[in-house]
Write a sequence for this structure.
């Protein structure tokens, strides 16, 4: 069937662009799955039929367990929110202003069909996995949850289409201000904390999703490992996962400074002061997690939080060496995550702050004036 011109344009601008921009995240997840499978294979004592059976059971649990289904629903919703954020941001970009006139010239039904096709193509990985799970579920006489999964994905696609149609047909008010800007417009805004203001103004959805992931990690991990006496090791592992969940905010911190504050290199700020500015921003952004760790671990929370912030600052400083290259950045995060994971398992996590903080400072100092980072 021949696609409409509107669908072709939207496909090139949004669907292809979404996969290009988020390919690093997909590669990261795919690499994690490969490592998992490699780890299972290297056990040696597990026969092939048992390996196949247990991997089949992982998929079967999706269509038989309401808890696993709920986790899949949450992941699908987060994926949908990412697509909403990407498409609305790209639609408002100056280079895509022509779309306001082009899209709105079509009737609502034609817009619905085109946006449905775009969102379906973005959801294709989820749809393929859901169909695979449905086939397995039907073979094992599970019908309700598989059908619910398909209906849920369909509802998310339709909701996405409604958001896009509403966004593309609205009138643009260039003088409008967000509620946050109205509240803080009379506040003093320190230069080193500008990114924090930017997060609460422009990255609210990203910040909210990150906080939801953090609390799911805290609740889930301490529930699953409630019988383990060494809670400090569990806390270190949870903190590592929480810091890794903040990688997108860390990346946006660097992009914000390179895009909007590139001129600040001429300001009379010392390298040490700029380096400490990372710490101040992340303390505010991670305040909910900090309060939880202090409440539950008391004085021991100091060493735990130092470990977390040392990892976070190293993640941030690496960007001055890597630049705005998401794929390369995710590869390094994957490497560091597994390295720190092993360090924590060997109970030598106390080495992280004295090792990572100087390393982060050196990486920042040597690459801070690198002018090729945004090329």
């Amino acid at each position: 069937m021949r696609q409409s011109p509107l669908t072709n344009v939207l496909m090139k601008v949004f669907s292809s662009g979404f996969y290009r921009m988020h390919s690093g995240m997909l590669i990261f997840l795919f690499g994690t799955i490969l490592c998992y499978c490699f780890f299972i294979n290297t056990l040696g004592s597990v026969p092939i039929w048992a390996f196949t059976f247990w991997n089949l059971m992982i998929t079967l649990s999706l269509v038989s367990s309401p808890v696993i289904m709920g986790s899949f629903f949450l992941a699908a919703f987060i994926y949908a929110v990412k697509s909403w954020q990407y498409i609305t941001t790209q639609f408002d970009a100056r280079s895509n202003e022509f779309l306001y006139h082009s899209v709105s010239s079509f009737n609502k039904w034609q817009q619905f069909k085109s946006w449905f096709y775009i969102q379906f193509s973005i959801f294709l990985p989820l749809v393929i996995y859901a169909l695979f799970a449905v086939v397995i579920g039907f073979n094992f006489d599970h019908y309700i949850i598989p059908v619910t999964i398909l209906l849920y994905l369909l509802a998310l696609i339709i909701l996405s289409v409604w958001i896009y149609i509403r966004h593309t047909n609205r009138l643009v008010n260039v003088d409008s201000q967000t509620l946050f800007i109205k509240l803080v417009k009379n506040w003093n805004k320190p230069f080193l904390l500008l990114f924090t203001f930017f997060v609460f103004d422009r990255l609210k959805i990203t910040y909210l999703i990150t906080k939801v992931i953090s609390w799911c990690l805290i609740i889930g991990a301490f529930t699953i490992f409630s019988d383990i006496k060494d809670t400090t090791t569990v806390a270190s592992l949870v903190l590592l996962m929480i810091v890794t969940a903040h990688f997108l905010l860390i990346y946006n911190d660097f992009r914000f400074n390179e895009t909007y504050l590139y001129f600040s290199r001429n300001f009379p700020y010392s390298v040490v002061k700029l380096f400490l500015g990372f710490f101040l921003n992340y303390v505010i952004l991670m305040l909910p997690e900090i309060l939880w760790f202090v409440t539950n671990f008391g004085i021991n929370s100091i060493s735990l939080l130092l470990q977390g912030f040392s990892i976070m600052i190293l993640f941030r400083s690496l960007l001055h060496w890597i630049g705005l290259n998401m794929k390369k950045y995710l590869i390094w995060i994957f490497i560091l995550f597994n390295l720190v994971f092993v360090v924590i398992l060997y109970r030598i996590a106390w080495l992280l702050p004295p090792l990572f903080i100087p390393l982060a400072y050196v990486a920042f100092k040597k690459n801070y004036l690198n002018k090729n980072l945004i090329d």
Notes: The chain has 18 helices and no strands.
